[in-house]
Amino acid sequence: MSRPESRTETGAAGPAEPAGQARPEIADQTPDEAATRAAFFEAFGGVRGMVETTVPGLVFVLSYTINRSINISAVAALSISAVLAVSRLVQRDTLKHALSGVFGVAFGAVFAMISGDAKNFYLPGMLYTLGLGVAYVGTALAGVPLLGLILGPVFRENLSWRTRNPGRKRAYVRASFIWGGILLAKSAITFPIYFWGDATQLGWLRVALGIPPFLVAVYFTWIILVKAPAPIDVIAEWEEKERRESAAAD
């Protein structure tokens, strides 16, 4: 699979180059395909992020299936989520995904214990999934796709795709519709079980619908972006501009 290679041409008129002076080329700062894929996947949490978002729910449904105790199951899920976050802290790794998991599990645990309904452990996550699906679709319809806002910094293009790279913007719009469609489909499956099923059915369904749809969305997003115009490396442009200004001042 070919990788998206960053480009640095501005696509807009700039100051005229002095006659007879060759324009310096910007060094190729594009990461190799493996690094690009790693950064792309890590933007969505990576393998570890998937584990951190899946294991607490799995622990809850396993515990509740065995002992039918909301409190014990909620505390067990929250404890494992906290252990995963502490593990990140000890390793001095990013806490973004771990902390989001802790807060999500904490909300669900408190809500389930207060309401006395084990199904409510999953409600905050279900509402988040629904809201995120609506956000993907809504921003895509508005022409400011959420996926572009997420991945722009990953590919060093920031928001250049909005005005300088229309083909890439279209790719982000299509991919955002895919993410939104998958998340809304998950909501369409899980909410009926929340209202008419029991807690164990909902729990196992949530576990089953955790990683596979995520991987499908990531795969199709990568396929779409590989076929899209290359990202404009605005970071390299800024660095080159600073280099020129520094050279001119010397």
UniProtKB/TrEMBL annotation:
Query: What InterPro entries does the database record attribute to this sequence?
Result: UCP010219 (IPR016566)
- Residue ranges spanning the membrane: these are 70-90, 97-114, 134-155, 176-197, 203-225
The source's domain of life comes to Bacteria
Q: Sorted alphabetically, which keywords does the UniProt record give?
A: Membrane, Transmembrane, Transmembrane helix
Question: Which Pfam families does UniProt cross-reference here?
Answer: DUF3159 (PF11361)
Q: Where is this region: Disordered?
A: 1-29
Bias (Low complexity) ranges: 9-24
- What is the name of the protein in this document? DUF3159 domain-containing protein
Which species is this record about? Streptomyces hainanensis
